């Protein structure tokens, strides 16, 4: 998994940010899916049912291109992802239930009016980089398909600094790979303070972001956008605290922090749109 790109220019924190969707080369298959291939940067292969909340998004843009993003299942009818993945698109199919990207156990085509992008999202700065997708029908839970909990709403939330966290996706394995992965991968890293992250990205990192260390080139990459960042909470077990947003323009494997949307900044928004919350 590699990160989005951000070039620090001078003066007023002017950054060139590249979001994580990756354009796909489409090949017609008998089942109508796309043939695509590649991986997460420096990660490990996920076991079957290890991340039952992991979602893949097969997206068609207004330019007629296909891109790939990640997401997470947060209830039996709602998927959480990055706003930059689903802005100005003509279609999206949600893939659920398999570590093999081309063999999902369930798929759903989401209507465009069921895509809810944060009303204050800005593509230029990636502020408020969060969106919700409403599935056309309720998902049947199983060992391979199950939602991830969110942090508790209306509760005090720690900054989650220096916490072991896990992020997963089908993104590129490195900066030179042209393709994304066929098998789900994950990395386990530690979260950073926002001050440490701002040392690299300046004011592009806000209080509504959270970052992880990527020393050794283990990181998110193109194709991982929207995917989950999860910690093990002392009371609730696994909870999602972030979703993949952006990273350094010089590449995924350079060791710069990976930046995520901080979910505790948006719990009320999620509840308002979807009715999903952890009380």
From TrEMBL:
InterPro entries: Peptidase_S1_PA (IPR009003), Peptidase_S1_PA_chymotrypsin (IPR043504), Peptidase_S1A (IPR001314), Ser/Thr_Proteases_Immune/Dev (IPR051487), Trypsin_dom (IPR001254), TRYPSIN_HIS (IPR018114), TRYPSIN_SER (IPR033116)
A Pfam family that the UniProt record links to this protein: Trypsin
Record keywords, A-Z: Disulfide bond, Hydrolase, Protease, Serine protease, Signal, Zymogen
Residue ranges annotated for the Peptidase S1 domain, each copy included: 40-275
Keyword Plastid included in the entry's annotation: no
Coiled-coil residues: none
Signal peptide: 1-19
GO MF terms held by the record: serine-type endopeptidase activity
GO biological process, one term: proteolysis
Family: Belongs to the peptidase S1 family. CLIP subfamily.
The name this protein goes by in its record: Peptidase S1 domain-containing protein
Originating organism: Musca domestica (House fly)
